[in-house]
Automatic annotation (TrEMBL):
Catalyzes the conversion of dihydroorotate to orotate with quinone as electron acceptor. InterPro entries: Aldolase_TIM, DHO_dehydrogenase, Dihydroorotate_DH_1_2, Dihydroorotate_DH_2, Dihydroorotate_DH_cat, Dihydroorotate_DH_CS. NCBIfam families: PRK05286.1-1, PRK05286.1-2, PRK05286.1-4, PRK05286.2-5, pyrD_sub2. It comes from the Bacteria. This is Dihydroorotate dehydrogenase (quinone). The gene is pyrD.
């Protein structure tokens, strides 16, 4: 069924298809047309949270938390929404989303297009989703990089009461200079600021919301070691490895190989797994890792668990395989 639907959808502009899918899921959910998928899996503890299974939805698919009731019915163990910024922003000019079906890849340079944190919170409040929800936060494109912490603090404070965990996105390649925040001193300063704010919010709300940081796959071992040192020293609750890659050499001479943006799907799997493996070695169990990048079938998810991830997330694989991928991943890990 999904293969037939995909053959039709892939004839339509990717961003148009994305928006149609979100609207379609919303409508189907309201009409009760999405049967709840009870994907029994390995119950998993992640950052102190209890997951019914370790397979989650990665950030980027539901940027504004418009569709969490529908996604919640597909059998995920947890959902992550965003990336969201303090103020609404349109993102980068279109076209900015490209499929590479010959390589089971997707290139995007969306640029954190979203309706802003206040709109996201309204959507969450209006939903009936009762599962584990992560909110992925970022900075506005117009905010100078030296003031990036201000944007993360705004989002952290507003999202805190509505999230089960909060992910700090410093690894998108589509916001100018954002990846500079992964450097040792810059990373340490940002994460210390956010951890201090977390302590104040914990006291104010009587609720501890874990913080995870999402990193890029385009890192060498020295950079990975530095990041591992920082996240352990500031006592982060988790780390997400990885975001999309700017390296498109795997596409060879494909017509889209020179497109700007991050590449996800099958082409990022090797790089993502290498970062995950090295990160797990350097972290040595000090905090859990969520593995994401290139999960196209169940055995890809199981491999990330073997390499040291506690849980995994999928996105591009859903575009190519449909929601059956979730059940396949849960079964493979189990």
């Amino acid at each position: 069924m999904y293969a037939l639907a995909r053959s039709i959808l892939f004839k339509i502009n990717p961003e148009t298809t994305h928006n149609m899918t979100i609207k379609g899921l919303q409508i189907c959910n309201k009409l009760g047309l999405i049967p709840f998928a009870n994907n029994h899996g390995k119950a998993t503890k992640l950052m102190g949270l209890h997951l019914p299974n370790p397979v989650g939805l990665a950030a980027g698919l539901d940027k504004n938390s418009e569709c969490i009731d529908a996604f919640g019915a597909l059998g995920f163990g947890f959902l992550e929404v965003g990336t969201v910024t303090p103020r609404p922003q349109p993102g980068n000019p279109q076209p900015r989303l490209f499929r590479v079906p010959e390589h089971q890849g997707i290139i995007n340079r969306m640029g954190f297009n979203n309706h802003g944190i206040d709109a996201m919170i309204r959507n969450i409040e209006a939903s009936s989703y009762q599962g584990i929800l992560g909110i992925n936060i970022g900075k506005n494109a117009t905010t100078p990089i030296e003031h990036a912490a201000d944007d993360y603090l705004i989002c952290l404070e507003k999202a805190y009461a509505h999230a089960d965990y909060i992910a700090i996105n410093i690894s998108s390649p589509n916001t100018k200079n954002l990846r500079a925040l992964q450097g040792g001193d810059e990373l340490s300063a940002l994460l210390e600021t956010l951890k201090n704010k977390q302590a104040h919010l914990h006291a104010a709300h009587g609720k501890y919301v874990p913080l995870a940081v999402k990193i890029a796959p385009d890192l060498d071992e020295a950079q990975i070691e530095d990041i591992a040192h920082v996240v352990k020293s500031v006592q982060m609750d988790g780390i997400i490895a990885t975001n999309t890659t700017i390296d498109k050499s795997s596409l060879g001479n494909h017509a889209l190989a020179k497109e700007q943006g991050g590449l996800s799907g099958l082409p990022v799997r090797g790089k993502s797994n290498q970062v995950l493996k090295l990160l797990a070695e350097h972290i040595d169990g000090a905090l859990p890792i969520i593995g994401v990048g290139g999960i196209m079938e169940g055995r890809d998810a199981a491999e990330k668990i073997r390499l040291g991830a506690t849980a995994v997330q999928v996105y591009s694989g859903l575009i190519y395989q449909g929601s059956a991928l979730v059940k396949d991943c849960v079964a493979a890990i189990r």
